[in-house]
């Protein structure tokens, strides 16, 4: 009983160390770009997009750590505090983007450009698909370097399933991961929903996550 509780109730906090970032074909271009930008590549602003769980936050935090950048959410931006932020900045754009948020993003773009500093935006949506009413902001985001994280291939997904369970303090045998990959949609959304459902069910039933358990919970 004590062993089960220890396994279930000691999830690890998210870690954004570069050494544990899982590289694969779906993120290799974005990883290589941020490894070289801005030292070897032009433009002061880059825009990184990808679905939830695609590794945007992990990859962007690697960059922020490397360049000692302030990390902000778009709705937290205050133009009066620009001078207090670090030399460079990472801004996570999250929905909904309010008119006030648009104005502040616009001012941030202009401020860091004039300062000759660097700014990295992240968002689930691409610059073109982001619903903005401020045309000046939309036109400025369109000038950013643009990189995108694609849906993962099998080997990357396999590693992500294992890591996601591990981060929740749960050990899952590789046979369980292979079973899930053969029967579920291969996407970041499905991966994270599945891990959360199985974690909750395992906690509620006080059972380890085995193939029979997965079958009963997910109906596979």
Structure notes:
The chain is α/β, with parallel strands linked by helices and 220 residues long. It has two domains: 2-9 and 153-218; 27-148, P-loop containing nucleotide triphosphate hydrolases (Rossmann fold, 3-Layer(aba) Sandwich), CATH 3.40.50. It has nine helices and five strands. It has helices spanning 2-8, 28-36, 56-66, 99-114, 135-141, 154-167, 174-183, 188-205, 211-218; strands at 45-49, 69-73, 88-92, 119-123, 145-148. A five-stranded parallel sheet has the order 2-3-4-1-5, with helices on both faces. The longest helix is centred in the C-terminal third of the chain and has 18 residues, at 188-205. It is elongated. The two termini are 28 Å apart. The model is unreliable at 1-13 (pLDDT under 50).
Number of helices: 9
Specify the structural class. alpha/beta
- Main sheet specs: 5 strands, parallel
Strand content: 5-15%
CATH architecture of the largest domain: 3-Layer(aba) Sandwich
Order of helices and strands: HHEHEEHEHEHHHH
Number of spatially distinct domains: 2
Q: Uncertain regions: pLDDT < 50 for 5+ in a row?
A: 1-13
Radius of gyration: 20 Å
Give the strand line-up of the largest sheet. Answer: 2-3-4-1-5
Query: What gap, in angstroms, lies between the N and C termini?
Result: 28 Å
Mean pLDDT: 87
The CATH homologous superfamily of the largest domain corresponds to: P-loop containing nucleotide triphosphate hydrolases
The residue fraction in helices comes out at 40-55%
What is the third-level CATH name, the topology of the largest domain? Rossmann fold
Number of strands: 5
Oligomeric state of the chains in view? single chain
